[in-house]
Write a structure and sequence with these properties.
The protein is α+β, with helices and mostly antiparallel strands. The chain is built from 14 helices and ten strands. The strands form two sheets. It has a six-stranded mixed β-sheet with strand order 5-7-6-8-9-10, covered by helices on one side. It has a four-stranded mixed β-sheet with strand order 2-1-3-4, covered by helices on one side. The chain is globular and about 65 Å long.
């Protein structure tokens, strides 16, 4: 036996595809003891856990022993020895979440999913629940994350609603076309940049949905604007944050932006392309006001400035070192990082210091 406990599927025979897969990754990664972690990671990426028959095959064709696999796979929490559900629920048990009642939140999920003691996957195989140290969204504690979608300020009573919302939602966080950096919607000279914070707190507060609305709005009005995601700005309690930077470098910062606010922000700084679009935009506002009998409130009330006393008092105490350009450059754009002095210290160590 590879596992220290009985594996319920250990009697399943390997298929030709299974054998071909494991033989291929061993050939690519290596057969020595030093390859045990990347091999286990490759196996879990494919099967979402570590099936014992696959591990036995690894031991047969490599120098890796069963005891080494047991030692590594039980030491690192990333590895799972049991089949997992289609969706993973990560319940944060960091300090802030613990103080706010994360234990009762996890108990509520277990009750809702009918999980008995020491069982982490529901009978239908839809959800697997696991405890994590910290999700980095302390301002939203207690927090859970389901497949990258974060829910905050939870109570035991809201747990059923969270599961219903997740299952019924058609929104997909991993939609690649909406996560590409530096998206310029309309051809021609760039008229400005719209920066959107996509740190963990921003995501948890819905900045990904705000970004979707930004893309729709600038496409609709054919506006030449670059939509850019940036890292943490450092004002987590004001998220989601949107910053509009004009060609003259003047910037406008908006806090607690919702998808419904987006079009007003865009049209405040960018004029729709073409006379007919401008007329259509004005007409649409008039019709909406007539039909809904609601007065339109200017988006100015969402605007904040880093010079505002309450904002500056908060930011002035922060000193960005590793995150010096947070809020202005994309955390996933290596070229932009290099343009702003990235790896200068490393280069100095490698070329100037003995």
């Amino acid at each position: 036996m590879i596992y220290p406990e009985t594996d319920t599927i250990s009697n399943i025979e390997l298929s030709d595809d299974d054998i071909e897969f494991i033989d291929r990754i061993v050939e690519e990664i290596g057969r020595g003891e030093e390859s045990v972690i990347p091999i286990l990671q490759a196996i879990q990426d494919r099967y979402r856990y570590l099936p014992e028959p696959i591990l036995k095959r690894v031991c047969e064709i490599t120098d890796i022993t069963p005891s080494q696999i047991i030692g590594v796979s039980t030491f690192y929490t990333q590895f799972r020895h049991r089949p997992v559900g289609k969706h993973i629920i990560n319940v944060c048990h960091g300090t802030a979440c613990h103080v706010k009642g994360s234990v009762s939140i996890q108990d509520a999920f277990c009750r809702q999913l009918r999980l008995s003691e020491n069982i982490d996957t529901d009978p239908e195989g839809i959800f697997t629940i696991q405890k994590v140290a910290c999700l980095g969204c302390c301002t939203l504690a207690p927090v859970v994350q389901i497949d990258g979608i974060t829910y905050g300020h939870l109570t035991p009573d809201t747990v059923p609603k969270v599961l219903d919302d997740f299952l019924s939602s058609s929104y997909k966080l991993s939609h690649k076309s909406e996560l590409d950096d530096g998206l310029i919607i309309s051809e021609g000279e760039e008229k400005g940049e719209i920066r959107l914070g996509l740190g963990s707190c921003c995501i948890a507060k819905g900045s990904d949905k705000v970004r979707s609305e930004l893309i729709k709005s600038v496409q609709k009005h054919k506006i030449r604007a670059k939509i850019k995601r940036v890292g943490c700005v450092g004002i987590c309690h004001q998220t989601p944050l949107v910053e509009v930077v004009m060609p003259n470098k003047r910037s406008y910062l908006y806090a607690k932006v919702t998808p419904e606010d987006v079009e007003s922000i865009v049209l405040r700084h960018f004029k729709p392309k073409g006379v007919f679009r401008k007329i259509a935009n004005i007409t649409s506002k008039i019709i909406d006001k007539a039909l809904t009998d609601e007065s339109w409130e200017p988006i100015t009330r969402y605007s904040i400035s880093v010079r505002d006393p309450h904002v500056s008092a908060f930011l002035e105490k922060q000193k960005h070192i590793a995150t010096e350009y947070a809020g202005s450059i994309s955390p996933t754009d290596l070229d932009e990082y290099l343009e702003n002095g990235g790896f200068i210290a490393l280069k100095k160590c490698l070329t100037e210091l003995n």
